[in-house]
Amino acid sequence: MLLNHINKSTVAGVDWWVEQIQNPTFSNGGSGQTESLMAILRLQQVQPLSLTQKKEFGKLLTDRIQTKLDAEGSICLFVDYAPYYDLGEVANSAGIPGVNFPIKTTMTITKNRVSVNCGYGADEVILYNDEAHPEIEAELSESNV
Question: Would residue 1 count as lying in a domain?
């Protein structure tokens, strides 16, 4: 699909996933030796990726996200122990193994915002935010009167 435009939120989301498939974060919500051992074992399973795979993944994910944003206004990308739905389909098409994804991760993308919870029970991290802040705009309007 040839897209006429690509939102900044799409770029922010894709950039984050491309980094993660190379250096995934593994957090199952626990702490201590068990959690550390599980992360080490999972990291040993991560497959090296070719430049072609990374580029194809980025291209396909860009197309998928932007198409969903244009049609529906938002998209959620999920990983439990492997990627699901849209993310899983893109990963399969690009030849990216499921072990290369951060576990227990959810990303929500809108046209103006990207947030991710990376790991079980992880706090939300805002990767991109271009939403209007009406309370600030109201204060500015009142001060200009």
Answer: no
Neighbours of 111 (CB within 10 A): 15
**Domain range enclosing 70:** 8-143
pLDDT confidence tier of residue 145, bands split at 50, 70 and 90: very low
* Contacts for 113 with CB less than 8 Å, ≥ 6 apart: 9, 126, 128, 129, 130, 131
Q: What residue type is 136 in one-letter code?
A: I
3-state SS, residue 128: strand
Residue 2 lies in a domain: no
Q: What is the pTM of this model?
A: 0.81
- For 124, residues 6+ apart whose C-beta sits below 8 A from its C-beta are 115, 116, 117
Overall number of domains in the chain? 1
The shares of helix, strand and coil residues in the chain, as percent rounded to the nearest 5, are: 50, 15, 30
Q: What is the CATH number of the domain that holds 62?
A: 3.90.640.90
